[in-house]
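Recall the central idea of this unit: under ordinary conditions, the amino acid sequence of a chain determines the structure it adopts. In this exercise we apply that idea directly, starting from the sequence alone.
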Amino acid sequence: MALAVRKDWDTYFMDIAFMASTRSRCPRRHVGAVLVQGKKLLGTAYNGAPMGVPDCSEAGCMIVEEFAPAPSGEPGVMVKKERCIRTIHAEQNLLLFTDRIDREGSTVYVTDQPCWTCANMLANSGIVEIVFHRGYPKDHDKVSALMAERRIVFRTIPDYAPPQDTEVKDAD
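Accordingly, the structure predicted from this sequence is:
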């Protein structure tokens, strides 16, 4: 019997990030993150409400409205964005539940490109690489610039496809 093709390390760890994301109870987006040093898995996390607090599936999303400049860059044109503030982001949970010593020189695999706040936190965490799958156009340029300035590798995996039944479509 022929052996199945073995997954490369990037695919393996990104698959684990997507599996971690299935623990999220957020109806809008499931995000998972994995901390890896070398080929050693050091931690996993997902987005969700603080421990012991009702999550979005129990208490509903805690939506706030923000106005931001239109992506077109037209002066004076603003677009309304809604976001939930009930949950702690996967990257934030990963930092909360791992030790600084483990993060030094490590890689974070995350299902979604980090937002500006998470990127700032990751930039100060000791990690040297962030690998993500889904983009976040709103913050892409400034997050990419921050990662370049901090000399943190910031990349996607070409032709990556998440495991079946692990993706929740963004409600935005």
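The chain has a mean pLDDT of 90.
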